[in-house]
Amino acid sequence: MNRPRKILIIEDEQDISRIIKDYVTINGYEALIAENGRDALLALDSWQPDFIVLDIMLPDVDGIELCRQIRQKSQTPILILSARGSDTDKVLGLGFGADDYMTKPFSLSELMARINAHLRRMDSFGAPSPHEDRLSFGNIVIDRKAYSVTVGGKEIALSAKEFELLFYLSKHNNQVFSKAQLLDAIWGYAEYGDESTITVYIRRIREKLEADPSNPVYIKTVWGVGYKFSLDDA
Ligand code: CA
Predict the structure, then answer these.
(1) Which of 125, 150, 178 is a domain's end point?
(2) pTM above 0.85, yes or no
(3) Cα of 144 to ligand 1 centre, how many Å?
């Protein structure tokens, strides 16, 4: 039997953290609660969670800042919980290395569905596939085993989801995908998803990858349809 997956819940409000813990435990996960940023970072090292649910309002550190600190040490998927609802905050949350975002009050079944989807995607993504581990186009090399991307030999730092999106597009190079298809392929929950997530991720990948992000060489916008990875018409 596989070991249960471990979910770290970073939240100081005990009524919320307990409900989440109970719910994910019933669904076969192991859960640990950290009530502040310090405990969360300790748990990250000692407990090695498979998934992190991070509340933005914490007593000792801003959740966004904590998200950034976690991302410096770990690629574990992070879902941010927030009472703030504006799109600006959503974009900000994703910009600091979070993989997903939910606004309070949230539905436990939707939270569970998203956690399941992230972990399922990671499983299928991590599955051995010897012929497709290393893709190379022009001067860009995308190595799935090492989760690394180099352009002209220079390593580019991408978050896990940025990497997966780039890898997916490049693996199917010259094929056009809609935002909904990409959301479904990488996040796995098109029915819940917000397609602007894809726009944000594509922009961030371009900013890291492209010499001129507004005139991209690798990921092309196909107006009215979506995106494709293609060097052909560069
Ligand atoms: Ca809180």
Answers:
(1) 125
(2) no
(3) 35
